[in-house]
């Protein structure tokens, strides 16, 4: 039974001699040739004191090595504004709010589609069919256009401004044909 418990804690191929575990392999083989076959980089090879190259002095005519300048004596540079770098990620509340408002805008587009299709017969009595179709498609696309426009124009601005504009746009884009007629059966 003990052998079965040990099997649960091991993985097939754990005893592979090409694996680098930081210790010598059980067979005492040098794993260096296996590393060359797998394409391991020089940085992944652990160094032992015998492998460390001797420190040599630079040639007589070469310039001295550069050392980092301490922060106190570094030349003053203009600070980089925060907006020039990558924008800070949004917090979870903002992401969830944008998701909910995006869903509301999707429902508004669906409402304009359904409401406009219910009024199509009546509206075509007073308008040309092509004119009605164009205005209906614009009404269906308007929620998506407003949502994307608010997101793009308020990039880098305060979050509350973005939310206020999205809520105001949702109220302005209420699908009145859908609210007045409903989803009644023809």
Task: Please provide a written account of the structure.
It comes from Microbacterium caowuchunii. The chain is mainly α and 186 residues long. The protein has helices at residues 2-8, 32-38, 92-118, 120-126, 129-153, 159-172, 176-181. 50% of the residues lie in helices and 0% in strands. The longest helix is centred in the middle third of the chain and has 27 residues, at 92-118. The N and C termini lie far apart (74 Å). α3 packs parallel to α6 (159-172). It is elongated and about 95 Å long. The chain is built from 7 helices and no strands. Among the domains are: 13-43, no CATH class; 92-181, no CATH class.
- Strand % is under 5%
Mean pLDDT: 75
Distance between the termini: 74 Å
> Helices and strands, in N-to-C order?
HHHHHHH
Evaluate the radius of gyration.
34 Å
Q: Which outline best applies? A: elongated
The number of distinct helices, counting runs of at least 4 residues, comes to 7
Largest sheet: none
Poorly predicted tracts of residues: none
Helix content: 40-55%
How many strands?
Answer: 0
The chain-level structural class is mainly alpha
Topology:
Layout: H1 2-8, H2 32-38, H3 92-118, H4 120-126, H5 129-153, H6 159-172, H7 176-181
Helix pairs in contact: 3-5, 3-6, 5-6
Biased composition (Basic and acidic residues): 32-50
Region (Disordered): 1-84
Protein name: DNA polymerase III subunit gamma/tau
